[in-house]
Amino acid sequence: MKNRIDATRTTNILRELVQIPSVNPSFEGGVPELEVADYVERFFHRLGLTVERREVKTDRPNIIGMLPGERSHSPGLLLEAHMDTVQTINMTIDPFAAVIEDGKLYGRGACDTKASLAAMLAAIEWCVENDKVPHIPVYIAATVDEEVHYQGVLDLLQIKERFSGAIVGEPTGLHAVIAHKGVVRCEIETVGIAAHSSRPSEGVSAIDAMVQVITHIREVVTPRLLAQPHPLVGAASLSVTEIAGGIAPNTIPDRCRIKIDRRTIPGEDSEQVWRELCDELNKLELGDDRASVIVHPPFVLDYTLDTSADSDIVQQLTKAACKRIGEVHTLGVPYGTDASKLAMVGIPSVVFGPGSIDQAHTEDEWVDLEQVALAADILIDVILSYGA
């Protein structure tokens, strides 16, 4: 099938996006997504599209463009991609040079996920320039803060009635991701009694109590999770990722804290998972009745994605992708995306985009430029067929 999009066009858009730094401000060297947002807003204005600028935080706006459809008042198709990237520390290339070599474009965000955004912009541009009108409105949302607190996509939930289905841009190798894990991150604290280390029996070591907690996680919780894998995303997990305790080498510690990362699978409710963990650890024997455990409220809580392979958005996307690349897989992945938040409020969502997750966040991040152009063509097919 002949390609509609010239790869030169998607390459130029992607190069311009990568050359604009948009490292999430929560990371070292971060800057607001403002300049990328301004770029996207100008892009839509040039095409004569209706544009909405939603100030999520100071200098961090979501930009939403709308391509009108034949049925202008119907809920529309949402194409969403985030503008922020992770940090550039320890990269081995110039993160913003957007160097092209051997059919690849290198730079921070090239793969995750400015390639998806470039493909979406190129697809909409082609529709406008060729006077193509979709059956229903198509919204293109460039959002902020996916890499940390996903405040950008949460802002979209305020206008959820506009959307009947969503394609969320992330590197999937042009396959369709219909399921992914959620996450619960929280601190667990053990409390003991401080004492001089020369008289340890007068105290209760919070570190010793934490050993009991970690042993329970390793020997009881992990085997239980591994025994019930999901067919697409695999097993749930619970990992201890940080630990801190004690104040001096001659003091029995009365406090010890760990941070945990609990990956949930479709069928699990993240809030319920946290509550059950609280109950389980509160009943745990810590080796001394004077010791106690506190499971603090989550500082990150995200949900799973579990979209039916038979849903219209998945069927339309996979049909369009098959025309361009042949066999297309419906996959599950272990990481999270903005799609779970949209699905949570009843918007059927699928994750799709050029590039491989193996290149995301890497020291020499890159994306295959032919895939970016193919992604744009696939999106055009979905835009023109969805809602028929």
UniProtKB/TrEMBL annotation:
Chain ranges of the Peptidase M20 dimerisation domain: 178-285
EC number: 3.5.1.18
Name of one Pfam family that matches: Peptidase_M20
Catalysed reactions, as listed in the record: N-succinyl-(2S,6S)-2,6-diaminopimelate + H2O = (2S,6S)-2,6-diaminopimelate + succinate
Heme as UniProt keyword: no
Pathway: Amino-acid biosynthesis; L-lysine biosynthesis via DAP pathway; LL-2,6-diaminopimelate from (S)-tetrahydrodipicolinate (succinylase route): step 3/3
GO terms, molecular function: acetylornithine deacetylase activity; metal ion binding; succinyl-diaminopimelate desuccinylase activity
Single GO biological process annotation from the record: L-arginine biosynthetic process
Cofactor: Zn(2+); Co(2+)
Keyword entries, A-Z: Cobalt, Hydrolase, Metal-binding, Zinc
This protein's record includes keyword Metal-binding: yes
Similarity remark: Belongs to the peptidase M20A family.
UniProt-recorded name of the protein: Probable succinyl-diaminopimelate desuccinylase
